[in-house]
Design goal:
This protein is α+β, with helices and mostly antiparallel strands. It has two domains: 62-211; 212-437, 3-Layer(aba) Sandwich (Rossmann fold). The protein has nine helices and 23 strands. The strands form six sheets. Strands 1, 2, 4, 9, 10 and 16 form a six-stranded mixed sheet that branches. Helix 2 crosses helix 8 (421-430) and helix 5 (332-348) runs parallel beside helix 6.
Length: 439
């Protein structure tokens, strides 16, 4: 199995051993009703440059250190931007919180590298919310900051540091799989430049929902990759930007895509397209509005979900995993109906829906011929139905030429399902840039 709220202006899966195996021109989306314009640039000028989809607290999220809250400590989330700009704003999330969380100091700075706690001296900027340096984030809500004048570059790592002086209640977190973030010793370390101030390295983001920029090119937009653990970067080298969404962003940047485009990784481990889980969070359809359609500047949504839908119901029920897995298998016809639902929702927002075929996993321990037959039927439909506005063929990019049901051994991380670094590179290379740039 693959691992894989609302906004008001002003995330250690490794703890469970069994979890390691789970797994036309389009105008920008109109902000949903719960978005209130920030001071300064209006909502239409903002484009999301990075995002972190939150996971509802449960058996997986409870393995995350500090999941019960970060009061009295500073969190430093490191975000690798995929689009540059002249101004930056930060979105803080408490969508799965059980009480209002209050932060007395929030700062941004240039990190000294992806996944590194140290920041570049002289780059720290205080973030304000409605003109104030403190902010209260109600349970179930997301708060966006005021604009901060800041020269941001694509590929740059931005450190977002947040200090909550009092108990926060349950933290809204994201299991990022291939990214490391940090928590300080007790005290306000938002302005600290040294990594020594952040002794706790954590495989999750805390409180942060996204980073938006005012891009230099007013026609810039964002591509959202809605996926599972493969999209989230499981089995790629941590903190190296080697998951396929980051590599796609690098390709677009190197090609000087016009207009410049952000690529947002909205992958969640274990995610299904249509069925939510108490362990792996909300399904792709349930979280689509929040994690994809409401992203500022979104133009295209890549739907890269399906492998968990067809494998999870057929996996053996261990005591730990029983409540996590759907009990009834889904057919290819059922999956196709779910894809059509996703497409309708994306089109309703005047966005383009891009379908990704399900990659091969014939060496995965839970593979069966019956699952393979369903996978092939689904992929045939994705390729030939023309229901999607475009197709990315990860199946062809990753399959073993001699055994099409298998992941190519050169791309296999070792479990028969998750691609390694070379596999992620092959996925990114297989994506025609003209799908997004029109050339």
């Amino acid at each position: 199995m693959v691992f894989v709220g609302s906004i008001l202006v002003a995330p250690a899966l490794a703890a469970f051993a069994w979890l390691a195996n789970l797994v036309g021109v389009v105008r920008p989306a109109t902000p949903p009703r719960h978005v209130v314009a920030a001071q300064g640039p209006g909502p239409s000028e903002w484009v999301a440059a990075w995002t972190a989809p939150p996971v509802r607290p449960g058996p997986a999220a409870s393995a995350v250190p500090f999941e019960s809250g970060t009061g009295g400590r500073t969190v430093r989330d490191v975000a690798r931007l995929t689009l540059g700009g002249t101004e930056v704003r930060v979105r803080l999330s408490n969508v799965f919180g059980d009480r209002t969380a209050s932060f007395s100091d929030v700062r941004i700075a240039v990190a000294q590298g992806s996944g590194r706690a140290a920041t570049v001296p002289g780059t720290s900027r205080r973030v304000r919310f409605g003109g104030a340096t403190s902010v209260r984030v109600p349970a179930g809500r997301v708060v966006a900051s005021d604009p901060v004048r800041f020269s941001a570059r694509p590929g740059q790592s931005l450190a977002v540091s947040l200090y909550a002086p009092r108990a926060t209640g349950t933290a809204t977190t994201t299991g990022e799989i291939d990214h490391t973030n940090y928590v300080s010793a007790p005290g306000d370390a938002t302005a600290a430049t040294s990594a020594a101030s952040f002794p706790a390295a954590v495989p999750a983001s805390y409180w942060i929902d996204g980073v938006d920029v005012v891009p230099r090119n007013p026609h810039s937009g964002a591509i959202v990759a809605l996926g599972d653990s493969i999209t989230a970067g499981f089995a790629s080298t941590p903190n190296a930007g080697l998951d396929w969404p980051d590599l796609l962003a690098d390709r677009l940047c190197a090609a000087h895509a016009r207009p410049p485009l952000a690529v947002l990784d909205a992958g969640i481990s274990g995610d299904n397209l249509s069925r939510s889980s108490p362990c792996f969070g909300q399904s792709g359809l349930q979280r689509m509005q929040r994690d994809a359609l409401s992203q500022p500047g979104v133009r295209d949504v890549i739907v890269a979900l399906g492998v968990n839908d067809i494998t999870q119901p057929r996996e053996p029920r261990s005591a730990g995993a029983y409540v996590c897995l759907p009990h009834r298998p889904i057919s290819a016809a059922g999956m196709i109906a779910d894809y059509r639902t996703a497409i309708r929702r994306i089109h309703a927002r005047h966005l383009r829906a891009i379908g990704a075929t399900i990659s091969p996993f014939g060496r995965y321990r839970y593979w069966t011929p019956a699952i393979e037959a369903e996978r092939r039927r689904i992929n045939r439909w994705i390729r030939t139905s023309h229901a999607f506005d475009g197709v990315i063929d990860f199946d062809r990019a990753l399959r073993d030429p001699r055994h099409p049901a298998w992941l190519n051994p050169a791309y296999d991380s070792g479990d028969g399902l998750h691609p390694n670094n070379a596999g992620h590179a092959a996925m990114a290379r297989s994506i025609p840039l003209a799908l997004f740039t029109g050339r």
